[in-house]
């Protein structure tokens, strides 16, 4: 039933994304496109928020509310509702054979991580949340990737930013969810990229002590896979770098990791769709343009 529910939820969520036009990001590339399209970045500040224990905190009531809201934009039959809700039944047994029920309730409702449709249920809730934020908080430039949210506002005073933080916390509290919030930021680490509103640039980000490790070049993996690893790393780091200078600053870490894994091939900056952007002028400076050496 989880597979059936996943198939249904994929269609429902895609219809909702097209109908509502909210920023539900599926990957870093979509986040970067959103960031690049922000006008007058130097006049903005970031708000970053994280939903605490998102999967297990989704209640049956919240799911029902989200499905009712979704019916405004897409067809959801009673049979579909029954299948989606049936897939929410989850039991965990201890070593004595006694079932453990979530939060000491008398039902087996749960959104489990790793289930066939767990991610799709979270996406539905995320779409519902984004729509509510736009209508109640009047934030248009806000997006969500699973449990990580990011928004921009015109530069606020400390008091105004704190008011927005309290409003966000209250809205999520009404959903039965808890969040952590940081406001008035000019640069943030989001997913695997650092975004800077002062410069308009972005660069790769890795959590501290998270060193890159790759398949050894002499492993028994198919040569077609190992041969492509340096090229894939070049493309990935290039896509996360706003220009060649940014790439050159980030590249040594990855070159050393590849060397440790037995690769002699160099990694080089490769312009991608995310780096081929129109220059953004900020106080007489140009940011985000394609370096002359990379132009065709």
TrEMBL record:
Pfam families given in the database record: HTH_animal (PF26215)
Start-end of Low complexity biased regions: 270-281
Domain named Helix-turn-helix: residues: 214-267
Biased composition annotated in UniProt, kind: Polar residues: 287-296
Chain residue ranges for the region called Disordered: 262-296
Protein name (Swiss-Prot/TrEMBL): Helix-turn-helix domain-containing protein
Organism: Stichopus japonicus (Sea cucumber)
Lineage, uppermost ranks: Eukaryota, Metazoa, Echinodermata, Eleutherozoa, Echinozoa
